[in-house]
Batch of 4 targets.
Target 1
Amino acid sequence: MAHENTADVVIIGGGVVGSAVAYALTHAAHPPRRVVIVERDTTYREASTPRSAGGIRQQFSTPENIAMSQATLALIADLKQRFGPDADVSFREQGYLLLASHEGQGILRANVDVQRANGANIEWLDPARLARRFPWLDVTDIAAGSFGTTGEGWIDPVALMTLLRTAAIAKGCEVRRAE
């Protein structure tokens, strides 16, 4: 029997990221015997997750970050099958708009190339296209924009955290209030 103060994996923080790690570990083909989340605020009232806007985007500059977002999108697409018919994180797929000055235009263009090469559906917008698509936007000092037309938007981060943590606990993960 394991000692009370030992674990195969200890996760510091049980917000959405810690809960996602616990979920992945406890649902792995060969899960660790003992997974423990150490959380100082088990009510999660003071945690960063409930304070988050819950944004999901693929507009990153590295393939690794894009892949992590795509894994989250796959999880959301499969939510009801994984967590039951009532599982919902209120995904609002409304896109993300990033803008660049003349100085930053090259960086934005390079990022869009990386995003597209990694399967993200990102639209490149020059000032004229920005003005047509977003007529409320003053494009006077904007050189370009990128808009994620699919796979970008907002979720309820607390709902996702709760689904992940509850499923991890059901597979034996423990949550310990400590710092």
Target 2
Amino acid sequence: MKTKHPTFFVLGLVLLLTAVACNKEEEEYYYDALSPVYMDFDEFRQAPKVMPAKGIKQAGKIYFKDNYIFVNEPNEGIHVINNANPSSPQKIAFYEIMGNVDMAIRGNTLFADSYIDLIAIDISDIMHPVEVGRMENAFPEILPFPIEENLPFAWQEIDHRKGVIVGWTKTRLKASYPGGGWWGWWRTSADMAFTNAESGAGVAGSMARFMLNENYLYSVAQPFVLKTIDVSAPSQMQPTDSINTWREMETLFRYDGNLFVGTTSGMMIFSLENPAQPVFVSDIDHMNACDPVVVQDGYAYVTLRSGNTCMNTTNQLDVVDISDIHDPKLLKSYPMFNPHGLGIDN
């Protein structure tokens, strides 16, 4: 029996190769992307400065210790507020810490992130803080938030040898592909899809990314990496554990010997029986959303919210029964209006 299919296949292949051969010349196209802005490592790693108190432009994380309130100004530093008289709190100083987003305090030591580093600051004298330790490259993959979310990052231009990345600038970049026809269109689409897929990596963390427990600091070092750092000696901080997770982590909350992790797709629970090495216990799913969590008396409270960065249309409070820590169960959900966080007090 005769068939024309093999002949057709060979002819089609010849035509395809001929088309590619006829379009060998490279064609160029231009696109806008975010290129990194660097700061020299020596300049970046200067000790934090104490500045006069100033107004709060954008409040980030808030931390309460003794009679003081510490308020983060994202990427700039920490406002110090004397709250001895709660009816009349007084701003008394501003700690200038480049790239600061998170903080935690143990005794008289303030732990704060500074772009890629973790620093320990002695605040025994609140008006004269002293840097007593620095763990360099504690968060090597954390990058500052982009100035324009709708642009891809120019990853091919990043060179960590030039210094720490402190921002982004819009740049016109040139790319090329084999000219002509559908082949050129495919290459262009593939390149742009890659750069856009990576853009989410530019976002650094959300609420309560630091959590202290005994002599250890737990941190969302990267969206999928939970890092444990021994801070018993602030001058010699050392990592003791690093866990790669399958969920994108956002928030940390410690309660009753466990670490509760809010992620974009659910809540995870880690046992802190060995504080140096958290161990996964269980998790519970929810719709893809931004997800802070607090815990008390056998219940976890989780809020979900809508928004472009959260990739979700649901706004609600979930109440989760964690009486069996190995088998958390959703009890009930309450509708809410775009919740951005929560706290609990009895």
Target 3
Amino acid sequence: MPKLQKRDRDYFERRLRDEFPTIYAGLKAGKYKTVNEAAKVAGLVKPARPLNTLKSVWTKASPTERREFLAWVSSRTAPARKTSPKIPSKAVVNADFYVMEWVKARVVEIMGERSINETRVMQELGFSSLDASLWRAMRRSPPSRIRPDLANALRAWLHDHRHI
């Protein structure tokens, strides 16, 4: 098995000198305080993500520390997303949270009548326009399930557009 390359200060300084001469010149001129900082600017080193740090520390934590951390997190959680009020009407999902066939047809019909796209529908539902969960549930075979909050918002949206 070949020996792994040592990724130390000398390695990154050598790469900066050879591949990124302007950044290396900035390092020597004092624009960057450390080789690591210059390597991050050059893209040779990726900045640490807090999530990766949390995962790493979690694996080293004792069961007691994990319980304490979970209690702390649960005490600091953001308030739940404001959801649409429940509107008593025909079910939009079945017991397993699969979108009903009539709902799929109705959503497409409303979109056509209003000349809107999926992005606009998700914005009107109060979700990110990048959230594709509803469309996966409507188009995929086998379909995906949708979240209860999305089902409630969809029910309210259909109710609001019942005249179309």
Target 4
Amino acid sequence: MRRVDADHAATTRPAPEVVEAMLPFLGEAWGNPSSVHARGEAARDAVETARLEVARLVGAQPEEIVFTASGSEANNLALKGATAALADARRRRVLVSAVEHPSVLEAARWLGEHGFTLELLPVRANGIVDPAGVREALGDDVALVSVMAVNNETGALQPVDEIGPLVHHAGALFHVDAVQAAGKVPLAVDGCQADLLTVSGHKLHGPLGAAALFVRRRVRLVPLVHGGRQERGRRAGTENLAAIVGFGAASARARAQLAAGGARRVEALGERLLAELLRRVPDTRLNGDLNQRVGGIVNVCFAGVDGEAVLHELDAAGVSVSTGSACSSGEPGPSHVLLAMGLRPEDAHASVRFSLGTDTQDDDIEYVAEVTPPIVERLRALAGRAIEKSA
């Protein structure tokens, strides 16, 4: 049976060159980067090479990159570590957009239970934060603001370049979760004036188990994990050598593909898929802004059906999709992102996310566009009969 991965926003298949770069460090090149002998020094050199590539991807200096085990850990380190290190006790408010990844929202809620006041920044119906609203919410009591660069469920491009200067003018720290943006759009920590920025390897055809937090030089950080002096004392624990090497290779690959126009190709495929779904499936609409988004993420509402049912039917047909964030897949209820955009719960439940990547092919789009309409039609018919029986 044909298989089509249309769930790249959840994770991506490691690229062949990434696997090739990792293999020696799973075998003869094993070593502890903290050891002072030759094997340890070789491992440390490999980590520092990867650090340089990640820094280049986001426009930072290598010493500003802290490796972590996941984007969720990096987000927690950003919010908890930076606020714990603040010297100004008057700054006790944290502003977070209502459509953030669960790792940001839950870390912010934890802060709200430990001496800080959490305020959620609303989004417009297109899922985008209004910079004017951020300006109004800011004050000299704000410690940190966190707004993601690209929403993982709708692909919405957030105006972080506009928000960053507002945050700094108010004297607060600015964190950007760029996990979903890396490899899809160019990143520059100076462009958005980020103090902290998160990226993750497995979202850009790297391995699971390696992510990074950019920490601007002047920003103090209290570590979440205490122990050794790894990562310049900001994250203890022996580094995941092979995964970090793979992350570095994936970062170099992503930067090269961006320069070569690879992201534009994915955008075009996404626009084609959206057009086909809107044309072939009646009562379908896009969730989010048609223009201010990453085109490779297509979140649509198939009115009158259950999104989970569509997911399982598509999976049986060989197409992998999602109904929202992979980290929220076990949570009951509709997507918090779609609800924050003003969707009715039944419409949020009827929504499905298709997400494409650099390995998506033209005929993949045609296959998805062919198998989806009859699935939605059949599920709508079943739902209609169920309503008739209950009447």
